[in-house]
Design goal:
The protein has 193 residues and is of the alpha+beta class. Helices cover 16% and strands 30% of the residues. It has 2 domains: 107 residues, no CATH class; 45 residues. β9 and β10 form a beta hairpin. The chain is globular and about 50 Å long. The two termini are 21 Å apart.
Length: 193
């Protein structure tokens, strides 16, 4: 995690799968291959707030707090909530349905490059959610039992296709975004998202 900047430029949401979250926390994921739109327009100093899958508790006892757990974690937390805003319904909510108030990671953009997925270097793939398999090859985060890919870029393609529409093309153009992950809600930097 990095030292937070005083403020950020533009803000934008990005869906983060539960398999990547622990690696954001540890700092081993410092870049993402994302669809061109809307991410190719990001600039250094802009910020993305990470949307994660959440489980909203059925028991909401306090009006100004939302009780939830993040997908892949058992601990229920209480998030400050504005009483005049309706709370999400109980149960599972996918990343795309997570309210900004629940975001716990802000990703401060360092650089954005537009390139073909196959042009991402092996080194950059290793900071994007790809890991060296102890049995040989490379595996994407969240696929520990998968037979390793021959290259880190091949494993990155598997990861990209699981997060985006299947059949994205042989070699899609992507926005390769490098960032610093900070474990704070984006409202801390922007006064609201």
């Amino acid at each position: 995690m990095s030292i937070p900047p005083a403020s950020v430029g533009r803000t934008m949401a990005v869906d983060i799968p539960a398999t990547i979250t622990p690696h954001l926390k540890s700092g081993s994921v410092r870049a993402l291959a994302l669809p061109l739109r809307p991410y190719s327009n990001l600039k250094q100093g802009d910020a993305m707030w990470a949307r994660e899958g959440i489980n909203v508790d059925r028991k909401q006892r306090v009006k100004n707090q939302l009780r939830l757990s993040y997908v892949g974690e058992d601990l229920f937390l209480s998030i400050p909530w504005i009483p005049s805003v309706a709370k999400p319904s109980p149960g599972f909510r996918p990343p795309s349905a997570m309210p900004v108030q629940c975001s716990r990671f802000t990703l401060i953009v360092k650089s954005v490059e537009v390139m073909r997925l196959s042009q991402i270097s092996e080194e950059d793939a290793l900071i994007s959610g790809v890991f060296i398999d102890p049995d040989g090859g490379y595996t994407p985060a969240g696929f520990p039992f998968m037979v390793g890919c021959e290259t880190a870029n091949g494993a990155l393609r598997v990861l990209y296709e699981t997060q985006n529409a299947l059949g994205v093309g042989e070699n899609p153009e992507v926005a390769f975004v490098r960032f610093s992950a900070i474990m704070r809600n984006i409202s801390f930097f922007s006064g609201g998202a």
